[in-house]
Design brief:
The protein is built from 26 helices and 14 strands. By secondary structure, it is α/β, with parallel strands linked by helices. The strands form three sheets. It has a five-stranded mixed beta sheet, covered by helices on one side. The relative contact order is 0.11. It binds flavin mononucleotide and iron/sulfur cluster (SF4). Flavin mononucleotide binds next to strand 9 and helix 24.
Length: 564
């Protein structure tokens, strides 16, 4: 199709477009609507959307083809997509992919505790091997905390019917919002969150109270709350558990954030690969609206707040807040240059709080029980708790809520049961894969908090951890991770666009010198440039995987390089 070739939209196209044209953030839902109707995005759909929504065809074409989920030809949506994330690769995803006619690979689908996920249309299956597909509507329920440690985000998640509005209310749900709206002014709410020392759980760890204060203080409006439910980091699946089993806690957290900041609209940006979670959230939003917990005159007050659910298009970079905001606005989802920050120039260039699912789901408990209570849940000087998604070669993979400061070995060995029989854990990945590997003594000495992770040259981030035992080829694990970064680099800046490719080639053994000193020097040189001048966290973090491999596994790297 050429840019000048507008194809005349048919009446059915216009009907579909009319459904969304006046809604906020309409492009993604429109693309999904056409994709669902036709099975892929046709030239006619691009033409009709471009013309009716006044988006230049070339821009729209670039945006549509950027998202991995949107197919451009048949069989498109109907063909199976098989997860090829780091854990699934070790569980035979390649053989499963080859056994399914027309199947294509998909980046980590956030089910590392129940591999190997296969998406067909809007249904999730899990394959234990070729020809062994089973439907999976919900994620595994997080197991009771084996340490008996007090929880916040998972405090009520195992209660019966917690995912229904009745069940939620029966177990203390909406007490936090009711207290906020009927007993507190917005500044008090922000003060309670500040006192709790709650910090962003999406990876960057920015203090939530400070962020909310920034939005509350910013002039202009309407103000917006965005719940970042993109959860694309390999090895992370905690937000999915919260949304599947405690969806009203996420909505209540968003609503409290709106009350505190003066926001009147909210977006819940959910990764595409969670279709069943999408349906649960849509049902929860409708139920909350009907019961007066969302919409106009919430709880009989003059406070109005509406939440719009939006599905992503399968691009990891859309978890980065600037890219997410561009994606919502229907622009090409590149990260934005900062400053200005979203607190003053977010959605539609207006004040916006972007918060992670876990951050928001923790807020109702903090309002109910107080900032001091939450702060006291951490060990020593650490405040609060963190959900950890632990997967790979441990006896009991799953999501665990830990007090900040808990020794890693307690989680790995006491809570998760340690390695599989006859094996030892040779490495874990940190921050999904963005924190690289930890191995050796670090497995003994690390405590689960950002300061300890940094002192080991890593980071806790969103706290996905994948364990790999001594049966695994650790260079191959690093290759899979780096190819993920290379695939997901948005290409906006060259150090990341080219650097991730060059590192992936070296880890695949398809490029680079066969001399270990030269090979290592190149890896550090490429990584150094990436860390210094990449425009967002993807390019800054990606080198850690290669560098930590060199640091912890010199013999394996030497064997790999000798084979080039
Ligand atoms: C490449 C990249 C991917 C990210 N993906 C996510 C994500 O999936 N979910 C998330 O909450 N934050 C993600 N973040 C962090 C967000 O940019 C942002 O810091 C976060 O949503 C803010 O919420 P919080 O303060 O509650 O953590 C990502 C950052 C980068 C650089
Ligand atoms: S660092 Fe990578 S992902 Fe981030 S803006 Fe640059 S090219 Fe895009």
């Amino acid at each position: 199709m050429f840019v000048a070739d507008y194809i005349v939209a048919g009446p059915a196209d216009l009907t579909l477009i009319d459904l969304w044209r006046n809604e906020p953030a309409p492009l993604l839902p429109l693309l999904h609507a056409f994709h669902d109707r036709d099975g892929y995005i046709t030239d006619q759909a691009i033409s009709a959307i471009g013309k009716e929504m006044r988006i230049p065809l070339a821009d729209l074409y670039g945006t549509v083809t950027f998202y991995h989920h949107f197919a451009r030809e048949a069989p498109g949506q109907a063909s199976p997509r098989v997860c090829t994330g780091p854990v699934c690769c070790q569980r035979g995803s390649q053989a499963i992919l080859e056994s399914l006619p027309g199947a294509t690979a998909m980046a980590c689908a956030g089910r590392c505790d129940d591999p190997v996920p296969v998406l067909i249309g809007h249904e999730t299956f899990v394959a234990k091997g070729p020809g062994q597909l089973e439907r999976r509507a919900a994620s595994p329920l997080p197991a009771p905390n084996p340490g008996g440690v007090e929880e916040c985000a998972f405090r009520h998640i195992r209660e019966i019917d917690r995912a229904t509005l009745d069940g939620y209310r029966r177990t203390g749900g909406y007490a936090g919002l009711t207290k906020a709206v009927t007993e507190m002014i917005p500044t008090d709410v922000i003060e309670t969150v500040r006192e709790s020392k709650l910090a962003g759980r999406g990876g960057a760890g920015f203090p939530t109270g400070v962020k909310w204060q920034g939005v509350a203080d910013a002039p202009n409006g309407p103000k917006t709350i965005v719940c970042n439910a993109d959860e694309g980091e390999p090895g992370c699946f905690k937000d999915r558990a919260l949304m599947d089993y405690d969806p009203f806690a996420v909505l209540e957290g968003m609503t409290i954030a709106a009350y505190a900041t003066g926001a009147t609209r909210g977006f819940l940006y959910l990764r595409y690969e969670y279709p069943e979670t999408h349906d649960r959230l849509a049902g929860a939003i409708a139920a909350a609206e009907e019961a007066g917990f969302l919409g106009d005159n919430i709880l009989g007050s003059d406070f109005n707040f509406h939440i719009y659910l939006r599905r992503g298009g399968g691009a990891y970079i859309c978890g980065e807040e600037g890219a997410l905001l561009n994606s919502l606005e229907g622009k090409h989802p590149f990260p934005r240059n900062r400053p200005p920050y979203p607190v003053t120039h977010g959605y539609d260039d207006l004040p916006t709080a972007v918060n992670n699912v876990e951050t928001l789901a923790s807020v109702p408990q903090i309002l109910r029980k107080g900032g001091e209570w939450y702060r006291g849940l951490g060990l020593g000087e650490h405040a609060g708790t963190k959900l950890i998604s632990l997967s790979g070669d441990v006896q009991r993979p799953g999501n665990y809520e830990v007090p900040f400061g808990l020794p890693l070995k307690t989680l790995l060995f006491d809570w998760a049961g340690g390695p599989l029989s006859g094996r030892t854990i040779q490495a874990i990945t940190m921050a999904g894969i963005s924190g690289g590997f930890l191995a050796g003594d670090a497995l003994e000495t690390l405590t689960l908090d950002e300061a300890s992770a940094r002192s080991h040259g890593s980071m806790l981030g969103a706290a996905g951890m994948m364990a790999f035992d001594d049966s695994r080829d650790i260079v191959e694990v690093a290759r899979v991770g780096m190819e993920f970064f290379a695939h997901e680099s948005c290409g906006k800046c060259f150090p990341c666009r080219i650097g991730t490719q060059r590192l992936a080639e070296r880890l695949a053994g398809t490029a680079g010198p066969d001399d270990i000193a030269l090979w290592t020097g190149e890896v550090y040189e490429i990584g150094g440039v990436m860390k210094a001048i990449s425009a967002c966290g993807l390019g800054m973090a990606a080198p850690l995987l290669a560098e930590s491999l060199v640091r912890f596994f010199p013999e394996q790297v030497e064997r790999h390089v000798a084979g080039i």
